[in-house]
Amino acid sequence: MDIEKEPLQERLITKNDKQKYIELQQISLNFVDDLERNKVGLSQSDAKTLLELIQIEIKYRYRMS
Prior knowledge:
The chain is mainly alpha-helical. The chain is built from three helices and no strands. The protein is extended and about 35 Å long. The model has no long low-confidence stretch (mean pLDDT 84).
């Protein structure tokens, strides 16, 4: 099975991978909690745009292509 097509959770084999997944999950939960706490209303298209902007910012800051 092609590893790139497997869901992220199924690929988590090592303890380090599991720990990284948990850390990233906590970051995402905190982010969404902040949005909710600040009463930021998001439509589905707003959420899609937000995810795209986050992806661009991460790629830029971490020098990913």
